[in-house]
Amino acid sequence: MWEDKLKIYDELVAKCNRFERKGKTVPYTSANGHMFSLVNKAGEVGIRFSKEVQKKYIEEFNSTIYKSYNSIMRGYVLIPERMLMDLDNVAKYLDESFDYVMSLEPK
Q1: Predicted TM-score (pTM) above 0.85
Q2: What is the CATH number of the domain that holds 60?
């Protein structure tokens, strides 16, 4: 089950040519020193946005704040499973998230 979710996440990241997936046990993407997407142990995908955009997408996606390992991930939106059926669409959000972290002060 988790391996299936990982394949989906890998397919999603592969659609974006400006960054690569990192991590073996906790798959994630990062740029500019900031993580901006990950898969938790439940196989859920979270993508990071600014506070304003996060609020908008939580409503638009009918979703919630993302949690990973019982921690609330500030700025992250849980990508509903139904959205993962259209990876081309979700890839646009992942690219948007990359642009967001590139606008932040490097770590």
Answers
A1: yes
A2: 3.30.1460.30
pLDDT tens digits, one per residue of 40-75:
999 999 999 999 999 999 999 999 999 998 899 999
Specify if 9 maps to a domain: yes
User: Is 46 inside any structural domain?
Assistant: yes
Q: How confident is the model at residue 25 (pLDDT cuts 50, 70, 90)?
A: confident
Q: List the one residue out of 94, 82, 66 whose CA is nearest residue 10.
A: 94
Taking the C-alpha atoms of residue 63 and residue 104, their distance in angstroms, rounded to an integer, is 25
**Alpha carbons 37 and 85: distance in angstroms, whole number:** 17
Q: Does the residue 107 lie in any domain?
A: no
Q: Which domain holds residue 38?
A: 2-102
